[in-house]
Amino acid sequence: MSAVLLQGRPESLPQVGFETQRYEEIAFFIHRDLCNVADLKSATFMSSLRKFDFHCHSHFSDGALAPQDLLVLAKERGVELLAITDHDTLKGYSPMLQAQASALGLELINGCEISCQWQRRGIHVVGLNMHLHDPDFALAMQAQGQARLLRAQGITDALQRLGFEVELKQVQTLAGSGMIGRPHFAQHLVESGQMPSMAAAFKRVLGSGKPGDIKANWPSLEDAVAWIVRAGGVAVLAHPLKYRMTLTKLRSLLDDFEQAGGQGLEVITGHQEPNQIRTLTDLALRYGFYASAGSDFHSPGQPWAALGHVQPLPRSCRPVWEHWS
Ligand code: AMP
Ligand code: MN
Ligand code: MN
Ligand code: MN
Fold first, then answer.
1. Cβ distance 114 to 88 under 8 Å?
2. pTM for the full predicted model
3. What is the C-alpha separation between 193 and 135, in angstroms, rounded?
């Protein structure tokens, strides 16, 4: 099989992100036989058994909707299993919400998306199905909240130095009782007419490497995964291709993630091209990770991240909910 593939067209092989793949990285894929090539080729035409969306945000972080509204929308979209995964908090989940989900015939799993760092890069790990009353996890989330607040002060200072009109209080009002984040700063800049759009605010001042991208005191990847695992949850690496790493770097991240106790990979996230799904499927199979799927929904009107609009998982993947079902 390897020989046949080696003679095939290289452009049909998995590609990662926006970075050019070196030939030896592609060859790594070719020489490993852990995946069924037929599965990879038809990856996007297969369906998982149950429709699920395990990555979305409510107004407890940077999402627009209340958790109750997410339930209703998910139900409308035919979702059977849902996890609300707000940034660094489990506040979106409650026994009452669980009861509302049950009344709608929806299976609700608790979750959150933890901000952490690996080799000085910001990485997001989704935790699913934790013990809600784990005291260490609660403390960890409290620390994440503090880190966000401190960073928010730093972002405010940075924006003021750039000449923008912004007070922390204004942005805190936008965040309400939710975790404060860069999107709330972007929203303030747009609503006050200082930026034409959220996208422009990120592109010019808040996005990666820009002056408003103040680094928070995020925990290490190892700590973030350990918090989830010790609380009985499953740690899933969120949107693996968003970090714009080479495949070699991504594999290095996955090695460390696995070593730390990570067990899942978001094979489906937002909109992805078939070759990206193949790449992630191959990685999930090779590492023996569960596969997760999530829209990363934040608010209505963003068709690239619409709640419940997740492409089906390739049949060769083990859906992450099998971990506890
Ligand atoms: P934070 O959690 O405060 O670091 O902010 C990260 C969040 O900002 C992500 O979860 C996205 O919701 C949002 N975000 C990141 N990049 C962009 C962008 N270019 N445009 C709009 N929102 C973005
Ligand atoms: Mn977000
Ligand atoms: Mn994320
Ligand atoms: Mn997210």
1. yes
2. 0.87
3. 43
Residue 22 per-residue DSSP state: P
* Rounded distance between C-alpha atoms, residue 182 and residue 295, angstroms: 20
What's the CA gap between 141 and 60, in Å, rounded? Answer: 13
- Ligand 1 pocket, CB under 6 A: 62, 87, 115, 181-183, 198-199, 202, 207, 298
Query: Which is the closest atom of ligand 1 to the Cα of 208?
Result: 16
> Cβ(145)–Cβ(88) under 8 Å?
yes
Residue 286: its H or E element: helix 274-287
Amino acid (1-letter code) at residue 14: P
Pocket test for ligand 1, best of 202, 213, 243, 295 (most atoms within 8 A of CB): 202
Model pLDDT for residues 178-221, shown as the tens digit of each residue: 999 999 999 999 999 999 999 999 999 999 999 999 999 999 99
Classified as helix, coil or strand, 106 is coil
59-85 confidence digits (pLDDT tens): 999 999 999 999 999 999 999 999 999
Helix (H, G, I), strand (E, B) or coil at 114: strand
From the CA of 319, how far away is ligand 1's center (Å)? 27
